[in-house]
Amino acid sequence: MTTLTHLEKLEAESIQIMREVVAETENPVMLYSVGKDSAVMLHLARKAFAPGPPPFPLLHVDTRWKFRAMYDFRDQMAKEVGMDLLVHINPEGIEKDINPFTHGSAIHTDVMKTEGLKQALDHYGFDAAFGGARRDEEKSRAKERVFSFRTAQHRWDPKNQRPELWQLYNTRKHKGESIRVFPLSNWTELDIWQYIYLQSIPIVPLYYSAERPVVERDGALIMVDDERMPLEPGEVPMMRNVRFRTLGCYPLTGAIESDADTLPDIIQEMLLTKTSERQGRVIDHDSAASMEKKKQEGYF
Amino acid sequence: MSTKHLTPEELNKRRIGAVRRRLDGQTVAVAAKQTGLSAPTVSAAWKAFREGGWAAVPVRPRGRKAGQAARLDGAAQQALVAWLAEPAPAGEPAWSSAGLAAALAPQGHEVSSRAIEHWLEARDLKPAPLVLEGLKRRRSTAGRWFRQRVEPTLERVSRAGGVVWQGGVRVSTPGEAVAGEPRRYQLYLHGKRGRLYSRCLAAPPKADDYLAMFERLLDQAAGKPVALIFHGACFDPVPEVGRWLARNPALELVVVPPDTARSLKA
Question: Among A224, B20, B167, B252, which residue's beta carbon has the most beta carbons within 10 A?
């Protein structure tokens, strides 16, 4: 009998989860945030249903504030994989011009991400949504099950989760309920990078170190990605060698100083790091247990 | 032949050998060939022997004697940090090591500019100038940038009798010996023969800090044009800098494009 490596075991588990969802639900969708976890999840989905394309569309809940490189990469990948790409932007957010600068990160995230996601799921009637969240990312994600059930109002109750013993998943839904499914729950950031390296998975170039214009805000290095970024009087962006461990809305995503411009360099950096990748996300620092609150309200 | 690679003991042995051969009547050239020293070194050893006997032949021990090094005490270091954060005295675009040493002298700290350079180096405040030689023929982004942006500017400024500077902004990473010290934002310039001028701040420099330095460069040039090849800042979204450059066409700013600087480092 062949012994699987730990990455092969993780891959097999994720593929099993995806096939289980397709078999058990009526209208699944894969949330595609354009980051590295989404890249791995998409790669696994293509493997799970090869030779045909995965039998569900991709959904990108856009906020209009992602990095430009992410939009380019998203469109390029959608063309390449031959899957339907649904892009949803909360129309109320557009109307009120919700943005991270004038409205703050909490309102921006709530309106553009949480509400936008709920709108899109309701609009298309999806009953299961794959997400690329991992347990090692953040405390509230650590306690969430692989199959995370949501009420008709998309709320999550962390105290009422189903057991998943021996990787047996109870997919029975109550009326109006939907499932958020996390096939990468048991992966770590290092697993993701090793898998990207071994499988040559394309990722957004922002993950690699390069000289980029950044300004310092509350200790975070924020990239000046376009002309919408308001600079303080007299502020001059500095060109620094930075890369991103996580990607979100650019005004809310901190870069790290790094010279890692190849995958082996990034993996080596991962081996030495002692901080969570989400340390760079401004939204996670809004208040204590802010991620759990957002998740209860419907955030991923 | 260079004797720089020899230990002082080996060099002295060869110098004494060369003097013996001269005493035996051999020529400087033959003594040099047999000892592996250069002819001037043999001549110098021979001259030293004639003037001071065998005792004068060996070279003096290299370097300072232990304990003779110029020390920068706490007060001197505090003064350096404080001065570096301020604009340099009039006439200088920013602080040079010689300028800092001269400023310390009246306070009773007699240190050489080299001691200051060591102090800067330990704090990662001694960046090397960009290497522009050979770029003209390079088939790369850096080569194209040099041919299209740098070369025409340098030619124009040189024709008008102007001066060429390099400069940039960076964040220092202090070495292990001074690991507890904060990182500093360094605005720096490299003048003739790569001479370093800097200003080091505790926070990212503002547009006024850059412009103050640019103005010093123009003042120094006394009406002649100045070309400044600058790395590390993105001035495009900063209207103040754009307006200043429009008002001061004598300063031709050539910004090093992203990711080009790596290939321009020695």
Answer: B167
CA A238 to chain B, closest CA, distance in angstroms equals 4
A37, A134 contact by CB (below 8 A): yes
Which DSSP letter does residue B146 get? I
Identity of the residue in A210, A212, A234 whose CB atom sits nearest the CB atom of B208: A234
pTM of the complete model beyond 0.90:
no
Mean pLDDT for all residues in chain B: 89
- Tell me whether A94 touches chain B (CB under 8 Å): no
Element (DSSP H or E) covering residue A85: strand A85-89
Pairing of strands A210-217, A238-243: antiparallel
**Which residues of chain B does A234 touch, with a Cβ-Cβ cutoff of 8 Å?**
206-208, 238, 240
For residue A116, give the H/E element and its range: helix A116-124
Best of A224, A227, A239, A261 to substitute, by most chain B Cβ atoms within 10 angstroms, is A239
Q: Which helix (H) or strand (E) holds B12?
A: helix B8-23
Query: What is the average per-residue pLDDT within B173-181?
Result: 79
Q: Give the chain B residue whose CA is nearest to the CA of A230.
A: B237
CA-nearest of B15, B68, B6, B63 to B42 is B15
Confidence (pLDDT) at B192: 87
Residue holding tokens 């045909």?
Answer: A52
pLDDT given at position B67: 47
Distance between CA atoms of B179 and B143, rounded to whole angstroms?
37
**Full strand arrangement of the beta sheet holding B163-171:** B95-96, B196-201, B185-190, B163-171, B226-231, B251-255
pLDDT tens-digit map of A94-136: 999 999 988 988 899 989 999 999 999 999 999 999 999 999 8
Cα A37 to Cα A43: distance, rounded to the nearest angstrom: 10
Interatomic CA distance for residues A82 and A52, integer angstroms: 10
Structure tokens at B67: 């304990």
Using CA atoms, how far apart are residues A165 and A273, in angstroms rounded to an integer? 32
- The tens digit of pLDDT for each residue in A233-242 reads 999 999 999 9
Rg (alpha carbons) of chain A, rounded to whole number: 19
Do A207 and A260 contact (CB within 8 A), yes or no? no
Spatial separation of the C-alpha atoms in residues B17 and B145, rounded to whole Å: 56
CA B136, CA B143: separation in Å to the nearest integer? 6
Residues of B at the A interface (Cβ-Cβ below 8 Å)? 169, 171, 185, 204-208, 210, 231-235, 237-238, 240-241, 258-259, 261-262
Beta carbons within 8 Å of A257's beta carbon, 6+ residues apart: A221, A240, A241, A242
Sheet strands (E) in A32-68: 58-62
- Pairwise CA distance, residues A118 & A139, whole Å: 23
Rounded-to-integer distance, Cα A258 and Cα B111, Å: 37
Count of CB atoms within 10 A of residue B105's CB?
10
A222-272: per-residue pLDDT in tens?
999 999 999 999 999 999 999 999 999 999 999 999 999 999 999 888 887
Full DSSP string of B192-222:
GGG-EEEEEESSPPBHHHHHHHHHHHHHHHT
